[in-house]
Each structure stands twice: as C-alpha cells, then as structure tokens.
Design a protein that fits this description.
heterodimer; A: 147 residues; alpha+beta; Jelly Rolls; 6 strands; B: 883 residues; mainly alpha; Growth Hormone, Chain: A; 4 domains; 79% helix; elongated
C-alpha cells in the first residue's frame, strides 16, 4: 500500500497528471508496472510503434531526436517524477524520439489500453489529463517564444 | 531577515525580487517628481504670479487632452515598459531644454512652459504607473503589494522633498532640473535591466486594432465612452473622477494661494514645498505600509474607497471656516498624503474589475476627456472666482464637487462587484444567462434555427436538433419532424418517431399507420408497440403476425400486444416466445426480451433475468439491470454477489443502473454498496446513490441536510447529495446553514493545510501527499459552500465566482476571491473572503491560528477520524509513516 501512495505522489507531481485529483490517481497508480533499465539501454527508438508511456521513478534518461537511434545527442534530459512517451498514447503515431537511459533507471510504465480504459471509466481523470496536456503545450509555446 | 520582512508585508518568497524592483523604480520616479513639484510651484508663483494659475489650468486642459489622446493610441498596444522608455527619453530632453531656457534667462515663457511640462509629466507617469502595475500584478497580489509598492514612490518623494529643502538655497532652484533628469536616467536603466531579465510584463495583452493612428486615438476614447454606457463601473468611476479633479484643482489653488501669501521669497517657498512634500509623503508612506492594506483586508475595497472623499469634504469645511496656514496644511495632507494612501491604490483595484482590453481605454477616456474637461471647468470657476477677492466662492464650488465625488464613489462601489462578475464571465466564456433561460426567451428565432437544424442532411445532427425542438416547441414538432422523417436513414427514422410518440400530435397516428407497410422490421416494431400501448383497435389483427415474426423485436412487441389486448388464446405462445428470447444465445434476442421485461416486469422470468445480468456483453448486462430496476419491491438475496460485481463495471451507465437495483438487496448489503456508490468516480453514479439513500430514508431533504452537515462522505459525495437535495427545493435557511458549515469546514482544512505547509522541509512523502489531498479538499469544500448558496443568492453572481475559483487562471481566481467578499450573505462572505485571502500568502492561516491543532499528529488524527474515505486513508498512511 505504501508503494501505491508514493506512486500517487509521483504522478501528482508530474506535469501530465498534475491536474488529476489524487483520488482519481489511485486507479492510475494501480495500473503502473515497474521496469528496470540500466545506463546505456534504450527505452524505445524513434519511429517504432509503442503502446506504453513512462514515468521516471529514479535515474535519468535522455531524449534524442536524431533519426539514428544510436546517436546520443540529447534535446532534453528527464529525471524522477517526469513523464515521457505519452504522445504516442494519444496520437498513435510512431515514437517521435529515442530515449536513452543515462543513469540506471526505475521506470513506471502505463499501457495504452489500460490508460484508455481508465479514461473511458473516469471522466474526471480525462479532464485532468487534458488540462495537463494543455499546460504542457502552453509551456512549450512559451519556451519557443522565448527562444 | 528578508523572509521575515516578506512575511510581515505579506510578500511571498518568489515575489521578493519583483517587489524589490518596483520599490526602487517607484522610488526614483517619486524622488524626481518631488523635485519637479517644488521647483515648478516656487518658480511659477514667485517669478510669474499665482494669479495666472487658473489660466494655466485652462491651457493644461487642452494640452492634457491632446497628449492623452496620443497616449491612448499606444497604451493598450505596447507593453507598459516600452512606453515608459519613450516617456523617459522625451522627458529627459525636455528637462535639459527647459533648464537651458531658465538658467540663461532666454525667455520668461520658460516658467509656464516648465509648469506645463511638470504637470503633463506627472499626470502621464501616474496614469501609466497604473497600467504598468496592472500588467504585472493580479487582483489579490495587487491588494497585498500595491500599497507597499506605491510606498516606494512615497519614500522617493520624502527623499526628494528633504533634498529640495536642504539643497535648493545652496545650488539654486533652476539647477534642481538637472538632478531630476539624472533620476529619470536611473529609473530607465533599472527598468531596462529588470525586463531584460524577466521578459515583458506578464499580464500584458495587446489590444486588437487595425485603424490608422489618428483614428485610433479618437477610437480609444470613443470606445471608452461607449463602454461607459454599458459598464456602470466605468460610468460612475468616471463621474467620480470628474468631481475629484475639480475638487483637487480648486483645493490646490486654495492652498497655494495661502502659501504664496505666507512665504515671500522663492527660496523660502521652495524650502517649504520641499518640507511639506517630505512630510506629506512620509505620512502617505506610513499609512500605506501600516494601514492601507490592513484596512483593505479588514473592510474591503468599498469602505476604503470612501475615506478620501470624506476627508476632502472635511478639508473644504476647515478652509471655509478659516482660510489660513493650518487649514491649508490639513488640506495639503489630504490631497498629497491621504489621496496617495487611499484613493490611488483603491482606484487601481477598481480597474481590475474591468476587462483587460478595456482597462487602457477606460484610463484613456479618464485622462483624455474626463480630466481635461474637469480641469478646464475648475480653471473656469477659478477665473470667475478671482474677480471677487474673497475665497468663499471657489471654496463653496470645491465643497460641492467633493460632495458629488463622495456620492459617485458610493455608486462606483455598487458597480464594482457586478463589474468584476462581468469580467469573470467574459474571461471564462460563461453565458450572460443560464442556457435554459436563453432557450425559453429566444422564441421564433430559436424555432427557426431548430427547424433549420432538423432539416439538415446529417441524420445525427438532425436528431439532436429534433430532441431540443420537442423539448421546447412540441406544438410545432410534428410539422417539422415528420417531413424530415421521410428522408432519414433507418436508425434516425426510429429515433425521430420515438421523439414524437410521448406527445402524440394529431397527425402522428395516421402518419404511422401509413408507414407500417414500408417500414423496416425495427421501425415496424416501434410503431406497433405504440399502437398496442394505446390499444388502438386497428392494430389488434397485427399481434399474431408480430408474435410469429422471426425478428426478435417484432416478436417481443407481439408478446406485449397479446397481453395489452388480453388475447388469452395467444398467452401460451407469447410466454414460449418470451422465454425463447431470454434464453437464446443471440444478443439481439436477449435485448428484445429484456426490453419487454423492462416494460412489463414478470417475476417468473427472474432466473433468466439473473442469468442475463452476468452476460458477457455490456449492453445486455445494462438492459438486464434496466429491467431489474422496474422489478417489484422484494428482497432477492442472490442478487448481492451479482450486483457487487456489476458495481465495478467500467461503464458508468451500468453502475448507475446497479444503484437503482440496490433496493432489492438485504439491508446490510444495500447500505454497504450504496455507501461505496456515493463515493464512485463518476458524478452520475454518486448522484444516483445519493438520490437512492435519501429515497430510502423517509424525509429525503432532512436526511440529506444532516448527511451533508455531518460530513458523512467525501466532498464529491457531499456535492452529489447536495445536488439531490437541491431538487427537493429546500428552504433558504437550510442552504445557508449548509453553506456556512462548509465554509467553517473549509477553514479547518485551511488550518490543517497551513500547519502542514509550515512544517520544515525535507518532508516525508506521505505528508507531501497529504498536502495535495488537503488542498483538493479545501478547494472542493469551498466550492460546496458556494454551490449551496448559489440557489438562494443570485446565481448569476455565484456561478461565475465558482467558475473563477476553479479556472486555474490566477487573475480570474483573484477576481473571484475578491467578489466573494461582496456576496449578500455577510457572514459567509466574511468566512470565505477571509479564507480565500489568507490561503494566498503561504502559511498565513497557520501563523494566525495554529492553536486549532496541537501538532501534525493531532491534525492527522483529526483527518483519520473523519468520514471522508480518501482523506482517512491518506492520514492513516501518513500516521503509520510517522511511526
């Protein structure tokens, strides 16, 4: 049970789930699966089909947009509490980036079908997620504008 | 140290750099304006003559109008800091030019020119300050920080005044102009550095314009005028400003006349002005720092807005009694200290109740039209009054203006809240009226629109419009829907007919009879069912055919017809057919049988029904549950396990139906499942459960009232219960009691949250989660309180306030919090208003009232002892983590 509460907290702190109530996050936390990766691993490659999104529980991963999945030029580094791979869950397009593990990482993965099931079942969860996605888009717009 | 100072002045930690910058910026400007004020007045009165002051007012009025029109053209379009840049550079060069003219005695016209330059500069800078701070602070921030930030200007004025008093006799009055221009350069540098680091003002939203520059100038003011027609706030605040200006300029002339007569030399007058400026500014600063924000918090914007008009009336009273130095000094304190301390911050807050795009225009109208006209009028009055040597005539005119100012300020106060609500509605895209009111009041236009909608080729859209049509204009529905029916697809034909059936419009029966031959089996079943239900004799002969049909819906309708017309000879066949449908492996058969059972519950098919409750298909399960909701009142113990399983069904519709079936369970099971359902994740399930709970407990309204008052579930469950209670139309007192109790509950939650936030970091993750949960509960409980009061207060006010608080937009939240303070229920306004204000600056509540909880453990134990399941488990988790 203690693990569940920690996961809820982690989800609540992530940008994507920040606007979902902790009550609704219970069900999301229950569906998370723990996966262990080691430095040098790749979580997924650019252009491959995917059906999971991830939350970094510990460790660090790097995001590369290079068409060559082995290239290690990172546009962003992601640390504990942050999500990646969620775009594919909603748009069903191939992965837009390769994610490399920079330091041994414990990831929590959420399967696409499970998240979709939750969205259908818990309407307030979907609203919170939409808000989270919208906030991320705003943040990106601001960042692009600043550059 | 900095943190403690921040806490004392209600500044959040992350606001410190911003507040620091504004203090410095306003200090530099304030110091410069103090130097300008003293030198302008002394040079003009002594080298040119105070008798020309009224004429200067008239000239200034014209100039002010022109300059402000140009200002108005750009005010909304550019970030405030960019316009400041233009001002500062222009003022710098004009000051240097003026100094050259005065120092080298080029022309006497330099004195009135300098007077006009100062007046225009100060008016423009003050006007632009307001826009600048509005682009950088939202309402609640402004309420806390503006008095302090404007205090920076006062500090600058004190420093400038003291400097002037000490140095004017030494360096010569004209050379002070050079020092002022130096301060302008320093302010410009500070501003450029700040915005280079932090970007443009965060609340700057450029206005949308396309017209040419000149038309824009005029446009800004005419827009402001048009807006004044619709906005009471703009109208009354403009009228208040008009009389403030008249009152102010007559008061200025009066006191300056006293001073010019009392002090005979330019140096002594400058030194006096310097000291006066320092003293009045020091007073203004002390009041702003120690009193204004506290008064605003304690009594609200509307009360503080009346202080300056009242002291102005008193000032004129004293001058009328004795036109002497003491009365003049009191009047100067009023116009230079009290005006800055009370009137200016409040006026800025009032402008926050206007839409962003109108703030600049309203200010432009005020500065470009209202102020110049008032100034010209004041000048005219003074020119006329100078004919008579005695001051009583212009003093009486000033007293009249100050009384009118007081009157229009009371009117402005009333318009303030409604203005704020309008802005919220506009920002959050809320309709002016509830949709049902819009629907019922739209009349022919809406009917025309619905007709057009029904006639469109897309079947789904057509049905959607038809649903609204029959709900609002059922008298016209047949004439519009039947022609469309002929061209609709199979599914839509059935849906359209079903919409008309409950109203049975005159042409329907004949129309359907004609349709029977050409209708597909599905539609035929729908039509026959309707005829059978109405026991239409024409249809008796069709029962047997329907019963024998291979189509399950037709067969099911045949069974119905046999019973409806009491055709005993067909009973055995009907029973056989229904059993066949219910036990068939085909989903469509089951659905047809269940549809019939829902219409005509027959308990001897209970075993088949229970079996279908566990069918693999959701639709069949749902239809079986639906049939069960019509079941006669009886306890079916074997349902317990089935319903327990179905209560976890992913489909909320199924869970809703489950709730309606709990009445068939033994007491203990029913209570357990209903309590779980009222905490369901879907609002409709929670509401259904709350309805069922109240239904089973005698006087539903009393039961629900107590259920909510006793906090018998989570905030979401209580909301569901409240919505059900509202359907019972409870008396006003009940809702007020609930609202107040919830506000009190919210206060306790805020105390708990405050205590948690004050706990030193690093914190246990369990406590961090508790913080999130308490924040959610606090927000939900405040909303619950407002929901309860919404139906007894004006819904048009409370609705936007609730939406504003939930919006997540800081400005909307701040405006909503401010509007809460002014709702009609004063007790609730006090509790919620205080709560929303204090939740802002972190830890404020905790600092004030920690005594409620001894420590974190005490607070967690309190959470654990409540009836909110989620809060209880989180508190339990935090307590066990602490162990």
């Amino acid at each position: 049970m203690a693990d569940l509460f920690d996961r809820i907290l982690m989800l609540r702190k992530s940008a994507l789930f920040a606007h979902v109530s902790t009550e609704d996050l219970r069900v999301v936390a229950q569906e998370l699966t723990e996966e262990m990766y080691f430095a040098g691993d790749r979580v997924f490659d650019i252009d491959e089909q995917g059906d999971h999104m991830y939350i970094v529980e510990s460790g660090r991963v790097g995001v590369s947009l290079d068409p060559d999945p082995t290239a290690r030029t990172f546009v962003a580094e992601i640390g504990p509490g942050e999500c990646f791979g969620e775009m594919n869950i909603f748009d069903e397009l191939p992965r837009s980036a390769t994610v490399h593990v920079l330091a041994d990482a414990k990831l929590l993965s959420l399967e696409k079908s499970k998240l979709r099931g939750l969205i259908l079942r818990y309407p307030e969860l979907s609203l919170g997620l939409l808000r989270g996605l919208s906030m991320r888009l705003r943040a990106t717009n601001i960042a692009v504008n600043r550059k | 140290m900095l943190k403690r100072l921040g806490a004392f002045f209600l500044i959040k930690e992350d606001e410190l750099p911003q507040v620091g910058y504004f203090l410095l910026f306003f200090f530099l400007i304030g110091a410069g304006l103090a130097l300008g004020r003293g030198t302008t007045d002394a040079l003009f009165f002594k080298r040119y003559g105070i008798q020309y002051l009224p004429v200067m007012y008239l000239i200034l009025a014209g100039l002010l109008m022109t300059v402000t029109m140009v200002y108005a053209a750009f005010a909304d379009r550019l970030p405030a800091e960019r316009l400041f840049k233009v001002f500062f550079v222009s003022i710098f060069f004009l000051l240097i030019g003026n100094w050259v003219l005065i120092a080298f005695a080029v022309t006497e016209a330099a004195f009135p020119a300098y007077f006009l330059l100062y007046e225009l500069t100060s008016d423009l800078l003050i006007l632009h300050f307001s826009l600048y701070v509005n682009q950088n602070f939202e309402t609640l921030q402004a309420k806390r920080l503006l008095p302090l930030v404007f205090g920076g200007a006062q500090l600058g004025t004190i420093a400038g005044g003291v400097f002037l008093a000490l140095t004017a006799p030494l360096v010569g009055v004209p050379n002070i102009l050079l020092i002022w221009s130096g301060l302008i350069v320093a302010a410009l540098a500070a501003m450029l550095v700040h915005h280079r680091r932090h970007g443009v003002s965060p609340y700057f939203r450029p206005g949308r314009k396309s017209a040419g520059e000149f038309r824009q100038c005029i446009g800004q003011i005419t827009h402001g005028l048009k807006f004044a027609k619709t906005s009471e706030l703009v109208r009354y605040s403009s009228l208040a400003l008009f009389f403030t200006a008249i009152m102010f300029y007559i008061l200025s002339y009066s006191v300056n006349r006293v001073y010019a007569e009392t002090f005979t030399t330019e140096e002594s007058l400058t030194a006096f002005f310097g000291m006066l400026s320092a003293v009045t500014s020091a007073l203004a600063l002390l009041i702003q720092i120690f009193l204004t924000n506290k008064l605003l918090h304690r009594f609200g914007v509307r009360t503080v807005n009346l202080i300056f008009p009242i002291t102005s009336v008193v000032s004129y009273g004293l001058l009328i009694l004795s036109f002497s130095l003491p009365a003049a000094i009191f009047a100067s304190i009023n116009k230079d200290a009290l005006m800055k301390a009370f009137r200016n911050p409040v006026r800025n807050l009032l402008f926050n109740a206007l839409p962003n795009y109108m703030q600049g225009r309203a200010r432009a109208m005020a500065a470009g039209l209202v102020l110049p006209v008032a100034l010209a009028l004041a000048g005219g009055i003074l020119v006329l009054a100078q004919i008579y040597k005695v001051p009583i005539y212009f003093l009486i005119a000033g007293l009249g203006a100050s009384l009118l100012y007081l009157y229009f300020n009371t009117k402005t106060n009333r318009a303030y809240v409604s203005g704020m609500i309008s802005v919220l509605r506009e920002r959050l895209f809320l309709p002016d009226q509830p949709l049902d009111v819009v629907y019922t009041s739209a009349g022919d236009e809406l009917l025309k629109e619905l007709r057009r909608g029904v006639q469109q080729p897309d079947d789904e859209m057509s049905v959607a419009y038809a649903k609204k049509l029959v709900a609002l204009f059922f008298h016209h529905s047949a004439e519009i829907i039947l022609p469309r029916h002929a061209t609709a697809g199979h599914a839509a034909r059935d849906q359209l007919i079903r919409l008309l059936m409950p109203f049975n419009p005159p042409p329907l029966a004949d129309y359907l009879w004609k349709q029977l031959d050409q209708a597909d089996d599905h539609l035929k079943a729908t039509i026959l069912e309707w005829f059978f239900e109405r026991r239409d004799e024409r249809a008796v002969n069709l029962v047997e055919t329907a019963l024998a049909s291979s189509n399950p819906r037709l067969a099911s309708v045949g069974v119905y017809g046999a019973h409806r017309f009491s055709l005993r000879r067909l009973y055995a066949e009907a029973d056989r057919r229904l059993l066949e449908l219910l036990t068939s492996g085909e989903m469509s058969d089951n659905a047809a049988g269940l549809e019939l059972l829902a219409r005509q519950p027959e308990t001897h098919y209970q075993p088949q029904l229970l079996a279908l409750l566990q069918h693999a298909n959701t639709r069949v399960r749902y239809m079986a549950l639906d049939a069960l909701t019509h079941w006669p009142e009886t306890v079916i113990p074997e349902l317990a396990v089935v319903l327990d399983n179905l209560s976890h069904d992913p489909d909320a519709k199924v869970r809703c139906c489950c709730v309606a079936c709990y009445r068939l369970l033994p007491d203990a099971e029913r209570a357990r499942l209903l309590q779980a359902a009222v905490e369901d994740t879907h609002a409709s399930v929670r509401q259904a459960a709350a309805g069922q709970i109240s239904h089973e407990n005698g006087r539903a309204d009393a039961y629900l009232r107590d259920w909510i008052l006793l906090n018998s579930g989570s905030a979401r469950a209580q909301e569901a219960a409240l919505r059900v209670l509202l359907k019972h139309r409870p008396p006003r007192e009940v809702l007020e009691r609930i609202a107040l109790r919830k506000a009190e509950d919210a206060r306790v939650l805020a105390l708990a949250l405050g205590l948690l936030k004050d706990t030193a970091m690093p914190r246990e993750s369990a406590l961090e989660l508790m913080e999130y949960v308490l924040e959610e509960r606090l927000r939900q409980t405040i909303d619950l309180s407002l929901l309860a009061i919404e139906h007894v207060e004006n819904p048009a006010t409370i609705g936007p306030i609730r939406a504003g608080l939930q919006s997540g937009d800081r400005r909307c939240m701040a405006n909503a919090a401010e509007a809460v303070r002014h709702i009609d229920n004063k007790k609730l306004a006090a509790v919620l208003g205080g709560l929303l204000d204090s939740v802002g600056p972190a830890g404020r509540i905790a600092a004030d009232q920690t005594h409620r909880f001894r420590d974190i453990k005490d607070m967690l134990s309190w959470c654990r002892a409540g009836k909110d399941p989620w809060l209880r488990s989180c508190a339990e988790h935090a307590l066990s983590a602490a162990r």
